Amino acid sequence: MRTFTIVFTLIVLLASCTSATAAPPDIGAVRDFGPNLTSSCPQPEGIAADPRGNIYVSSFTPAGTVCVIDRNGALVDTIALGSPLIGMLYAQNVGLYVIDFGNARLLLVDPATHASRVIATGLGGPNALARDAQGNVFVSDSFGGRIWKITPEGTTTVWKQDTLLTTAGFPPFGANGVAFDRNGSNLYVANTGDDRVLRIPVNADGSAGAVSVFANGIDGADGIAFDVRGNLYVCANQADEIAVIGPSGSRVATYRGTGSAALHFPASLVFRGRDLFIANLAFDHSFNPLPDSKVSVLTAPFPGAPLH
């Protein structure tokens, strides 16, 4: 009888474990993550993730605060930098790159000590950044129609300048979100005002090739990120949605939140495994502040591509 009881108990425990793990979040269902950030990081624009699962969010306000949210959604730290902040990227064993939009420069921040140092200045209208396998950082200049290249030693040059990186549209930001494809052979650039994503080949010598249009019809194309299948996730800040562009350049999916979980001016995104975290800049479509600064998250069909 005792043996039967033990076996029965094990069966019940196994069944409980199976049921507990058999219901992952619905694919593409947008939900809120972490606390409301109105008092700590209002108008969150940039977003980054570190290997421990922490999510970093930058505030596009004069206080210039970076909020740190742990993998469980708790606000665990704030880093005050004192200027409107925008794009971010975490590089392992290097630190947190932060674009100081107010002073047109790139900072490198140590999240543990809050110490920061200037990596590059005079970047015009710096917005978003990507990093290649050699440690070079590429920064989009939304007002100058340029992509800046900053070497690990801090040498700053114009990597590409082109009229396709400018805009006469609305919002009045040209080159914005940037991301390398998985093998680093192309740099993709969102053009917000033109509602499109551009592609720039990386030549064998590291120089930039000709700019071409990769995808159109993304209302307010902003932050971008690839998954491991080569699908490009794009924040459409004027449509309050995430557009997914397949490798051929055609839209293959659209994700939108509903009710209190709706997206509000999605500006930047970052993968952590299959979870895609989104910074909501919390403006209406005329750039008036909204009282719901937050991070959203959705579970994607495939994990994000590794960042260099």
Features:
4-stranded antiparallel beta sheet, globular, 1 helix, Neuraminidase, 6% helix, 308 residues, mainly beta, disordered N terminus, single chain
Describe the 3D structure.
It is a single chain. The protein has 308 residues and is mainly beta. It has one domain (31-299): 6 Propeller (Neuraminidase). 6% of the residues lie in helices and 43% in strands. It has one helix at residues 2-21, and strands spanning 31-33, 44-49, 55-59, 65-69, 75-80, 85-91, 95-100, 105-109, 116-120, 126-131, 137-141, 146-150, 156-161, 175-180, 186-191, 196-201, 212-216, 221-226, 232-236, 241-245, 251-255, 266-272, 275-280, 294-299. It is globular.
- For the termini, the CA-CA separation is 59 Å
- Give me the CATH architecture, please: 6 Propeller
For the largest sheet, list the strands in their spatial order.
1-24-23-22
Total DSSP E strands: 24
β-strand percent reads 35-45%
Q: What is this structure's SSE topology?
A:
Blueprint: H1 2-21, E1 31-33, E2 44-49, E3 55-59, E4 65-69, E5 75-80, E6 85-91, E7 95-100, E8 105-109, E9 116-120, E10 126-131, E11 137-141, E12 146-150, E13 156-161, E14 175-180, E15 186-191, E16 196-201, E17 212-216, E18 221-226, E19 232-236, E20 241-245, E21 251-255, E22 266-272, E23 275-280, E24 294-299
Antiparallel strand pairs: 1-24, 2-3, 3-4, 4-5, 6-7, 7-8, 8-9, 10-11, 11-12, 12-13, 14-15, 15-16, 16-17, 18-19, 19-20, 20-21, 22-23, 23-24
